[in-house]
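User:
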Amino acid sequence: MKKFLGVLVLFLCGGVFSAYGQPGKISGYMFGDYYYMAASHKSNLKGQNGFRLRRIYFTYDKELGSRFDTRLRLEMNSAGHFTGKSKLVPSVKDAYLRWKKNGQQIILGISSTPTWDVIEKVWGYRSVEKTALDLQKIGSSRGFGLAVKGNLLADGTVKYHLMLANGTGTQPEANKEKKILGSIGFYPNRSIIIELYGDFERQPGSHDVYTLQAFAAYKTNRGRIGVQFAHQTRRAAGSPKLEVASIFGAVRLSGKVNFFARIDKMFEPNPNGAAIAYIPFDPGARSLFAVTGLDFIPAGNIHFMPNVELVSYEANASGQKPGRDLIPRVTFYYKF
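Assistant: Predicted structure:
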């Protein structure tokens, strides 16, 4: 690891990217929290508290002439499972070559998928929490493959994003099957966004997975509101169909204070719920997730966000109702 970081520093600082006359751009951001597990359906987590960095991004962007550019992005995170002594270890988040012309792009490598790319931008508070599908581990933010995206209409009122990928996120391919993802977005004016999304992933043994999603948002200079619904079918024996709905909003209270809130409803138990980082869900019960807080902005790129997350559950198959999860937090976010 030390050798890897040393090579990275020399690579960035030694002028290797000085080709084509212009230096590249280094940027990044960090966010994390002080958290307190005031209540948890897992008795061993109640009272747990501490500081953590949920994400560090370190990004290098470089123009390669008038039509091409490239990006290398590393990510680091504090472990989200409340056990062990894992250190913050960097991994590759983005690594792609992009061609662009007249509002069209072709991207080769590891890049953002269309699954929640637009939704996350409209939500605007990834530093507070992942969007609904991301949180519930229904899909991946990254794909390794070939993507095309851009404007279907010259005025930008209809946009598309298509991708053919391994289907394993940033991990190595483990089988010969692939994943197809696509979205089409409608932007009739500056305030309204409507997006339809679908994906299909072939898996060995006829265990195919497909996802359908609809999203709509309304934005003004002072605030925004978004509504999302998604359905995923997993054809493996015993795998449930997953459905989730989410509604969120944010409003500017003053020049340096915003209010935000969100509610997600899982209509079926998530069998992967216990593996959700930082806020494990009960895998055997339907859940309702809520988060709300304030966003204080002392400077343009610095945010402090006191917030609280709540998860309540319905009764499980045995008729037992898991206890709720309640997590007050102070989240910080800054970028450079």
